[in-house]
Write a structure and sequence with these properties.
By secondary structure, the chain is α/β, with parallel strands linked by helices. The chain has 8 helices and 16 strands.
Length: 250
C-alpha cells in the first residue's frame, strides 16, 4: 500500500516502516503557526515550531525536520538569514512564505538556498502541493543510497554536498549544486528544460529559462575542462540537458 501524504518509508531496521514526515514551521505569529499546524496535521504531517532564526536553527539541528516552512518576516529577524545559515550544514528543503512579490527578492532567496516560495495569501491545497513537490526534489538532490557520483574527473559527494574536479574541491552556489545534482541523479538521460525549471526554481519561475542558461554557463566554467566544448554537461537543443557518464579518470 502506498504511503499517505504525510508519511515516508523507512528501511533502517531492514524492513520498510511508515513514519510521519516532520515539518518545522517558523513564524513569529502564534495564530499563523496554529493555522498551519491544524492544516498540516490534518494531512498527516508531524509539526514542530520555532519563532525566530536562532530558535529555528536550534530546532533544525535537534529535531532534523524533513522540510522547513519559513515565514520571510520574523519580527526583528529575517528569514533570509535562516536560509543562509542553515545551508552551511543542512540540505533540508526550505519553503518560504512571503507577502512580497518582487523578482529580485525571489532570486535572492533561491540563490541563498531556498527551495521554493509561496506568496501570501495562499490556499492550503496549493501549500500542500508545494510541500509534496519540495519533498520529491529533496529525494532527487539530497543524500541517497549511493553517496557519491563519479563521471570521469568529476566527483559529487551527496552526503557532504561537495564537488571535486580532478581531485580539487570546487565551490558551487546552492543553485549550481542543486542543478548539477539533479542532472547527476538522472545521468545519461535528458532532463527537460521544463523539469529543471520546476525542480530547481519552482513553478513561479518555470518560464524564466534565461536563468537556466546563465547558471549552466557558470557551472560549465567551474567543472568543464573546456567550457566552450563541454564533455560533461551537454545541451539537447530545444529539449534540455544531459550529464554524460565518462569513464573513470586514471
Amino acid at each position: 500500500m502506498a504511503p499517505a501524504i504525510g508519511e515516508k518509508l523507512s528501511g533502517d531496521t531492514g524492513c520498510e516502516q511508515l513514519q510521519r514526515v516532520k515539518i518545522l514551521v517558523v513564524d513569529d505569529e502564534k495564530q499563523i503557526r496554529k493555522f498551519l499546524r491544524i492544516g498540516l496535521e490534518g494531512e498527516g504531517y508531524e509539526i514542530v515550531e520555532a519563532v525566530g532564526v536562532e530558535d529555528a536553527l536550534s530546532v533544525t539541528v535537534k529535531q532534523r525536520p524533513d522540510l522547513v516552512l519559513l515565514d520571510l518576516n520574523l519580527g526583528a529577524d529575517h528569514g533570509l538569514d535562516f536560509v543562509r545559515q542553515v545551508r552551511e550544514f543542512s540540505a533540508t528543503p526550505v519553503l518560504v512564505l512571503t507577502v512580497r512579490d518582487t523578482e529580485a527578492e525571489k532570486i535572492e532567496l533561491l540563490d541563498a538556498g531556498a527551495d521554493d516560495y509561496l506568496t501570501k495569501p495562499f490556499g492550503m491545497g496549493e501549500l500542500i502541493a508545494r510541500i509534496r513537490a519540495a519533498l520529491r526534489r529533496a529525494k532527487v538532490t539530497g543524500t541517497s543510497h549511493e553517496p557519491k557520483f563519479c563521471s570521469g574527473y568529476l566527483v559529487i559527494d551527496f552526503s557532504s554536498r561537495t564537488v571535486l574536479v580532478h581531485g580539487e574541491p570546487v565551490h558551487l552556489t546552492p543553485t549550481e549544486y542543486n542543478l548539477l545534482s539533479l542532472l547527476a541523479k538522472n545521468a545519461g538521460k535528458v532532463v527537460t528544460t521544463n523539469q529543471i525549471m520546476r525542480d530547481i526554481w519552482g513553478p513561479g519561475l518555470a518560464n524564466e529559462t534565461g536563468y537556466l542558461r546563465v547558471y549552466m554557463a557558470a557551472l560549465r566554467k567551474k567543472i568543464e575542462e573546456n567550457p566552450v566544448q563541454p564533455v560533461l554537461l551537454k545541451n539537447e537543443p530545444a529539449i534540455g540537458y544531459r550529464l554524460i557518464i565518462l569513464p573513470a579518470a586514471e
